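Example 4.3 (complexes with small molecules)
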Amino acid sequence: MGGIFGFICKKQRRVSDIIQGLKRLIYRGYNGTGIMFLDANGELKVVKQPVKVDEFKLDQDYFANIAVGHTRYASRGWPTYENTHPLLDCNSKIGVVADGLIYDYEIIRDDLKSKGHKFVSTTDVEVIPHLLEKNSVFDTANMLKGLFAFVALFSKKNVIYAVQMDQPLVIGINDKEECYYVSSDIQSLNNFAEEALIVPDFTLVEISLDGIKAVNIYTGEQVELREKKRVKPFPGGEKAGFPHYMLKEIYEVPDALISTSLSLMDKYLRLSSMILYGAKNIYIIGNGTSLHAGMLASYYLLQNGLNANVISAAEFPYYALNNVTTGTVIVAISQSGETSDVIRSVKLAKQRGAVIVGVTNYVGSRLALESNVYLPIAAGPEMAVPATKTFTSTILALLELSYYVGLNTNKRTQSDISSLNENVKALSKSLKEIMPRLEKSAEEIAEKIYTWGDFYVASSGIMYPLALEGALKLKEASGVHAEGFQMGELMHGPLTLATKGLPIIFIRPVEDEAQELYYKVLENSKQKGANLIAIESYDDRQKGEEGLLRLSVIKTVKDLMPISVAVALQMLAYKIGVKRNMPIDTPPALVKAVIY
Ligand code: AGP
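Answer. The structure with 2-deoxy-2-amino glucitol-6-phosphate bound is encoded below.
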């Protein structure tokens, strides 16, 4: 994976402007940064370093009409200077930056080497500039197998060639400045362009100052770029004074909830809920944090009278796809809207006649485009790889959807929906108020526990997905091993390790029926010598619960408690990560949207 950002402008401009765009793409990769541009003589010039965008330096203040940059995720080849994009042809006249993977590059590279081409990197992408020495961009794209997007510049040619082979690319337009932009996503275009065209799958686009030409890679037929989106502001600037994006984004949870609530339009919730109500069978798919939100959604739907199967989007094609027919509805959740597993499963399910209800943070994403109807979660850009505000907003979107389903099944009334919205407002307000206190308490607990390893996170009922999510956040942000459990399951094996002072984070369940189990398991774990941390609201504390570390959360209605708890778990994982000096926003070997 990687992030691509470039411009072609009538007037010369600072090449370093590219860096601003690349900074917004670091979630796509951060193992190397490079920029290529055409100098005053039209010659290709490249500056690249195997560092994050923040550390990247241009050796002087260059100006150009055409420049393209890249932030790299090192999937094929180590993060070295040679492997950093742009990659060049034998004569350094052709430069290429790319996103995604080329599957058959080894065969092509061996063939090119046998014909005398000199390779300097171990990346898959380097085959592209070498192929371009003898072949057109169109033919080159046709020769490659994989999931990728690439952008090529040629010495003496004032054209950006952009190829979209199932990896996202958008084209920004700024008529006033007479500039076009090319980027991996729309949000990076804020302050550069007002509108963006979404490049459809399998398209070659030539962008010059005379305009944009697009053709289909397989047929060669002209393509009209019809999908146009407005570029939205990038709220809060970059880190807005916070030390990490993750902390900034946790602080943005309360506003994001309001924004989600406002953007979920009644007519789309009604339409989606009717689609679900009329479904023959329902599958909820997603990965990682989105899968955890999907698990919660299945609980919410059940309370509102509908049964849905939740499956990792990575597993879906192996055993659920055969059950998909006309009448199946897939609720596909992906904050990025680009995750390969989700897109692949959605496409396969569509071929078998399924209807897709998408839930995503990105309106121009491939999930949004593939969905029959989609719910925008509108949480604003999320840069840290560990998902925070998109998780809480996704939960809210799915909860609202389930309430609308409840209107169809007569489990809910319109007034339930109104009071849910009132409760969301109240929760958002209280979260905003307590955030600094929560940060402080999480920091105090982190101070005591950051040297501990191997955490268990346990809960029951609708909080069980939160236990899984808490464990995931500990892995990603804190860099510690953690596992999530259903509380009762701890008794069936896992507690055997508790004698060694094992840290267990207990999230108090919200169901009355589960309270007894909570105390039993808590007591049992204490007896066995576990180190306990309880996450519960101040109101729920009971006398007699001594010897625990506690992180208090806001008490709200049962259905919204997962949001309240999510914020506490995120903050705790963040603070442990800080104490352990982890690269919190960019955990090793991870990217924001997993593409393979
Ligand atoms: C979340 O913190 C993780 N980075 C990861 O599990 C993520 O949720 C997963 O890859 C799915 O991403 P998506 O929502 O963009 O599809």
